[in-house]
Structures are given as structure tokens and as C-alpha cells.
Amino acid sequence: MHDQPWRIIGVPSDDPRALELRRQLDEDLGARYDGFHGEEPEERRIARARALALHPDQIIATLIAVTDADEPAGHVVLRRLDDEWEIKRLVVAAPFRGRGIARGLVAAALAIARDGDASRVILQTGLQQPESMQLYASMGFTRIPVYEPYVETMPRSVCFAYDL
């Protein structure tokens, strides 16, 4: 028996539940950042999409949280980015927010990184995601300078690291 009405499972990156949760994240981020980048050339939008893309050969783990009723409630990806490990695409579906799912997903990703002998885990978020920044700070992540591939396309990003 577990203490919460959800559990975290590993799935393939193309699992339909993972794809749907990422679609929900894209919709949420689109609303949060609408107009945030101002007028910009199409090349920059394309470069930003490239920086945010998930490449299957970089993915170490795709985790989703599912309820006891098997409803997909949250998602996170852990990927290798050069010599570092990066948390990507953290989302909790709106009906399930406030239940500790994001914290559980991040903790599970950190455990995988620790078991994989990563020295630290990094992540990129933004000013329009204050709840994310609060979560990371509360879990012991520290602010770091914006790193590649976000420097050119998202210089106002807020980046964090967690030393393992």
C-alpha cells in the first residue's frame, strides 16, 4: 500500500499518456508566454523549438504519475545534455495540482540521476512559471546562469542545478 493516491512509473517517451501530458504542457506554456518574446524573426522561433526539442537518443527516463484509477496526472523527462543530466517537460495536469506530484516526479528523476552517477542535474524554466521556481528552490536546487542551448533563444530563462 502507498501513502498517496498516485504512483510514478517509467514509460517509453512515445507513450500516448506522456505525449498527451506534453501536449497539455505546451498549451499551458503557450498561454503563459504568449507575447513574452515580443516580435521576433521566424529563425529565432525555430531555433527555440530546436532547443526545447526532446531527442530520443538523449532521453534517460520518461516518468509519469498515474492515479489509482490509472489516469495520467504528471510527467517529467530526464535527459543527458552533453556531460550533464537535465530535467525537462515537468507538468502536472490541472485537476491533479497541489497533491505533491511534481515534487514526487522531480525526486524520482533525481534518484535515477544519482543511481546513474550523475554529478548534478540542471533545468531551465522561466519567469512565467513562479510555482516551478518555488518548487525547485524548496527542493534544494540553486540558481545558475542560463546554459546552452537556451542562451541564444531564451536568454531570460531561469536555470537551476542540483548537486548530487
Characterization of the model:
The protein has one domain (6-163): Gcn5-related N-acetyltransferase (GNAT) (Aminopeptidase, 3-Layer(aba) Sandwich), CATH 3.40.630. It is globular, with a radius of gyration of 15 Å. The mean pLDDT is 90. The protein has helices spanning 16-33, 42-52, 101-115, 130-138; strands at 6-11, 59-67, 72-81, 84-92, 120-125, 142-144, 158-163. β3 and β4 form a beta hairpin. The protein has a seven-stranded mixed sheet, sandwiched between helices. It has 164 residues and is an alpha+beta fold.
Indicate the CATH topology: Aminopeptidase
Described by strand count, sense and barrel closure, the largest sheet is:
7 strands, mixed
Specify the CATH architecture: 3-Layer(aba) Sandwich
Taken together, the total number of domains comes to 1
- Average pLDDT, to the nearest integer? 90
Q: Radius of gyration, rounded?
A: 15 Å
Please work out how many helical segments DSSP would assign: 4
Shape category: globular
Low-confidence stretches: none
Strand content: 25-35%
Q: What is the highest CATH level, the class?
A: Alpha Beta
